[in-house]
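Take one protein record:
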Amino acid sequence: MPKTIQDIKDFIELSKSATECRIKRKRDAVKIKLRTKNTLYVLKIEPNEAEEVIKKIKCQIIEM
């Protein structure tokens, strides 16, 4: 099961140890998924906040 994270700062910290980041854009929200060695972490945020978070992510980014 993926783990949902609410705090953006924690999510950015986790991106340092992640292997990849997948981004899925919808009309009302953006899902950002971080894959680490053992766990999948998910952050669901508003589209206007998403661009700032994506710029800070420290791993490979894949747009879906």
User: Anything to note?
Assistant: The radius of gyration is 10 Å.
